[in-house]
Amino acid sequence: MSDRGLALARSKMQAEGVAPAAIETFTRFYHLLESGETGLVREADVEPLTDLPRHADLAVSDADAEAALARTAIIKLNGGLGTSMGMDRAKSLLTVRDDAPADRSGEAGGTESLTFLDVIVRQVRAARAATGARLPLVLMNSFRTRDDTLAALAPYDDLAVDGLPVDFLQNREPKLRADTLEPVEWPADPSLEWCPPGHGDLYPALHASGVVRALLDAGFRYASVSNSDNLGAAPDGAIAAWFAASGAPYAAEMCLKTPADVKGGQLVVRKSDGRIVQRETAQTHPDDVDISLDPTVHRYFHTNNLWFDLEALAAELDRTGGVLELPLIRNEKTVDPTDPSSPAVVQIESAMGAAVAVFEGATAIEVGRERFLPVKTTSDLLLMRSDVYELTGDYRLVAQVDAPLVKLSKTYKQIAGFDERFAQGAPSLRAASSLTVDGDWTFGAGVRAEGDAALADAGEPATVPDGATVTADGVTS
Questions:
Q1: Would you identify the CATH topology of the domain 378-476?
Q2: 113 compared with 110, residue with greater pLDDT
Q3: Is the distance from CB of 146 to CB of 119 less than 8 angstroms?
Q4: What is the pLDDT, as a whole number, of residue 1?
């Protein structure tokens, strides 16, 4: 059964022109999947990561920061569609702000709709202007995000650097029927027969595209890699200089955990050999979940912001043909994510951060929450669009107060419904410690939330009037 399934999957990938390195990576994972490999990292086999250097404590001169950025490239993972929000194109094309940045004096700018991609590009351009670094921006697109993304980049005619590509293509692989491990067939929408292989596909995609060698040939030595939905991961000269001085082949940015951090990967130390390894949520045994989330035991979580020495990365990609020995992540879904009655499938995935175990001498650094501002849900998006954050002249989003916890009901899960109910803009959240919205509420203009603001389900669609205040007691005028 498995021999047939693998043969069919390989043939399907070859017919679609999938890169050989990606096919071999898929084949390796398929064998692990067929053998019953779960990829679980048990708590008894690891120790917590402790005593990391802190970004806040770095003492880096402007000259060293500029010198390091001059040899750094920015790589953004841009393959996400935002399907959990009901999107069918790149999540990075969502509007994240409706204002121009404040100037250096703190005076607010005008009104301008900015997508994640707009902010990323302008962060890079601002860093170039401030330091003189060439600072190439290279996106890893998927087969579903590439066309729209490149069209959105077209107005930025100064973006390309020295003939380097502005993007390379993430691979794709067939979804497998959970019962047979054969490629699923879905004539209603054949595109749903395919899935991205997870962030770990960064490595075979880099190998197939030749991007690493092109960057080295153009004089770059380091790469900063992060998700396009994390606008906190702006170019940073201090971290670049620290990484360059460390001599490490690889580094991960880690944040201190809070009770709100219930998802995301973490780094742990493998007892058997002392290597730092990554443990994703999907790799945590149910019996180990509570201790893995305990901030008194495992202090840090992974931001998915990575740094690479490009020479070390190129050597490893050449040695392995792009097939790095990353742990398997088995992801079970339905072939149509919007239809729970459609056939169950297995998606073979891997995490790019898991490469920490591949590079001897890999390290990590503690960074502040300002480096971790991901948007995974519409609740996150409301926070980013609100007055909690101010967009600075170098296009960084800076929190003006401690960010409140926002919880929106399922009514707001899809971006269309969310935008309809906040058509007059996000409420002011600077005076709120939390905002919980149950049921279906449409917000008027100039709404303000205070304290532990909450709206109970009214049983039918309701409206928060213009200028109203939402408190723990509901709507007040």
A1: UDP N-Acetylglucosamine Acyltransferase; domain 1 (2.160.10)
A2: 113
A3: no
A4: 46
